[in-house]
Amino acid sequence: MQLGQHFFLEQNGRGYGDGMQNGAKRTTIYDLAVLANASPSAVSAVLNGSWKKRRLSQALADRVMQAAEQQGYAVNAQASLLRRDRSHIVGMIVPKYDNRYFGHIAEQFEAMARARNLFPVVTCTQRDPDMEFDAARELVSYQAECLIATGATDPDRISAFCKASGVQSINLDLPGSGAPSVISDNFAGARDLTNLILDRCRTDLGWTGPLRFVGGRRDDHNTAARLSGFLAAHAAWGLSVPDDHILAYGYSAQTAQDALSGFRPRQPTGVFVNSTISLEGVVGWFTQLQDGRRWVRYGCFDYDPFGSFLPGNVGMIEQDVDAMLASAFDLIGHPTSAATRILIPCRLRAF
């Protein structure tokens, strides 16, 4: 379903869809009734999803849908919604598709929604707060029953609009104060990954020293939580981290590579990478080190299977997407305090 798609309005049972016969006559439910050997009311019940309640047969429903498909017939979504108590639509905005983590979230969201007899609509907003708000407004206009804002840059603006519209909203991945939030336990995950990198630096290189933290933004919730876990692990090792070791200048691969461009280790060192996006830049830097590669161990918060094949990579943090989404779906349809924050444990994958 594409938001903004044009549908013809129904008037007395005609013009109900956008199907055309021979490019001249718009298909109506009466045309479909003749083709499917059914009554117009039965055709309408099949098209609006109420045929099971009316105890119509699966065979009849199949005939109607086959006829509709052959005629290129599209149900008038907005008019149909007006006749139903529920739309069964659940929407999600995501910041990026070209990232395994967010791609996995979008894919699993669709599968879980359909398994619950909900219709999923996903749109990518490129970390642009205005695009996020426009997408939320469009989803609400299609009577989405719930909107899940994933990694939103301004979740409170979205939740305030949804509340005013009488639509439930849930924050995923990044929290907000205007709606319940389901997020990863970034602090514990970062602490565990930092401990792993420090341990491998000591075991493999005979070195114990402060790591460098690369990627993200200090004012971003997830970066701040991971940085806290990173620093807590160092403190437990009796180590302090110089401020110039915190290279949190953004998430892009090029930004991460540029942040390390002047660093050419001639002794053991370790790097905490804040996302797989930043990891691309760190690997670009690493491959240019030549002899210096043997001195470096690093790990990444976020998981991709290719990571286990990268030289120097000792482990990754895998966020539990299935558990996060299951918790979010459990909230749908249930009044929940906006202050609710559900932390989902992460998995440490050591290589």
UniProtKB/TrEMBL annotation:
Name listed for the protein in its UniProt record: LacI family DNA-binding transcriptional regulator
Pfam families, sorted? LacI, Peripla_BP_1
Keyword Glycoprotein carried by entry = no
| Listed PROSITE patterns | HTH_LACI_2
Q: Does the keyword DNA damage apply?
A: no
What's an example of a GO molecular-function annotation for this chain? DNA binding
HTH lacI-type domain mapped to chain residues: 27-84
Give the record's keywords alphabetically.
DNA-binding, Transcription, Transcription regulation
Say which domain of life the source belongs to.
Bacteria
Q: What SUPFAM superfamilies does the record point to?
A: lambda repressor-like DNA-binding domains, Periplasmic binding protein-like I
